[in-house]
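Supplementary material to the annual report.
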Amino acid sequence: MSSEDQHPDGAPRHDIAPEAAATGISKGLTHYGDRGFSLFLRKAFIKGAGYTDAALDRPVVGIVNTGSAYNPCHGNMPQLIDAVRRGIMLAGGLPMDFPTISVHESFSAPTSMYLRNLMSMDTEEMIRAQPMDAVVLIGGCDKTVPAQLMGAASAGIPAIQLITGSMLTGSHRGERVGACTDCRRYWGRFRAEEIDADEIADVNNQLVASVGTCSVMGTASTMACIAEALGMTVPGGASPPAVTADRIRVAEQTGEQAVRMARERLTIDRILTPAAFENAMRVLLAIGGSTNGIVHLAAIAGRMGYDIDLAALDRMGRDTPVLLDLKPSGDHYMEDFHHAGGMATLLRELKPLLHLDALTVTGRTLGEEIERAGPGFAQDVVRPRAHPIYPQGGIAVLRGNLAPGGAIIKQSAADPRLMEHAGRAVVFEDAEDLANRIDRDDLDVTADDILVLKRIGPKGAPGMPEAGYIPIPRKLARAGVKDIVRISDGRMSGTAFGTIVLHVTPEAAVGGPLAHVRDGDRISLSVASRTLHLDVSDAELARRAAERPVVEPTAERGYRKLFLSAVNQADQGVDFDFLRAAHTRGKVPNSGG
Ligand code: FES
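Predicted assembly:
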């Protein structure tokens, strides 16, 4: 054998599998122009960390480590990684954890949504760049799970989601509290001068009682439930709180399952099918999930080449009641949901509405997993379909001349008195205008008016911040007003409540009709007929557009430039246009729901 037929370490060169067939540590070799040398060098470096050839022969499972001192929602990351590694080793794999960026809601300026796509690109590219046969995605805080699912969907290898888990609830003067519905409630009481500075400081110590994600049905809990409904977690993976033994056991099982997925080449495209997305839409409606959930689902589906059909989502909502009694639509917290059996209890109740043949990461179908979870037990967190906490799905989709591309309202968290309402527009041109004027005593506003906030959409702010929860003007709050109709092109935290119309598409910053609303215009909202109407003629809107043309925001350099040039609208998930799948495969659901 000539020296050219051998590896530098003496092994025959033909032992190097062709790139497409390579597995484990031999996958995705660095390009040095000599694949044998590339593997030789790679092994030399990893052996510097003390690995043996026997270890390096195993299937490699990557673990995405999103621990960060800035992200207390991921504060249990070391324990989770430990347990995932144990699971991988028990199943005969080789665990390799690696970092990606981590995004926390309160530590991300201007808003975490601005960074979600960056995190998804980081996730996708590091999965592609490094050798792994499967990947465990560990996320929890609002944007991290969607970012990871988007990135993994594009990377295409076997992937499994591990949720960090919810925080525990705290206690303020005998009242149970948890982030973040109670954060907003107490802050509203402070603004209305019902409680003083000492009490609000006490509350601040109790709202987040441990590491973990928000304890109500906010975006984090919503995405945890959606991940399980999509079949992307082990059964029961959504609900265990962050600091419990159950959460650690889920982590170990996730590691074990990842090795099986690697061996069986259970790639993500076999899990993220139209049936799985439709199941996730059902679950989003039935849990009274965050409105952000639909934006993230649209982005994840877009990575697989599917468009979420908002009209169909609305039709599905009419026969999908809200069953989960969690704040802000109900009374309980995530740990109660876990004690009530978690997602198995909900899915069992939703069974007639689900695609039971959808495959999950276990290699079994969703229907099989529901059966395996047993018959259930008496509990009061998941209602039977005959006695829902809200008769329709949590989210309704609105259309009209103010939102030709659609808008949404979380009807289960809205004031029933305001869901059929017409009123005078009180307009704020952007977030700064809002901050400057909302609390002024001379603001011309009554409880019957409709607050309109412009330029907080995907390009407007940019990043579509959760500023759609416009505060009640202080003078109305002081007078005891608890809700008022609010409309914007922004988002709202899933932990918020009120009669709030969001995601108005197209947004004001790209010249949508919202840009041309003026003080005193009349707006009609009818949730029953799913309409949002601006009582201004098309001719007048065109005249206003010509009078004050909209200039789209731009940036000189960096990520902001990329963001503003490539971000799409809310109905497409606020993803970058170049990150969507190259070919559109159809709508979800394709049957009209
Ligand atoms: Fe992380 Fe709420 S801030 S889940």
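Residues 170-205 form one domain.
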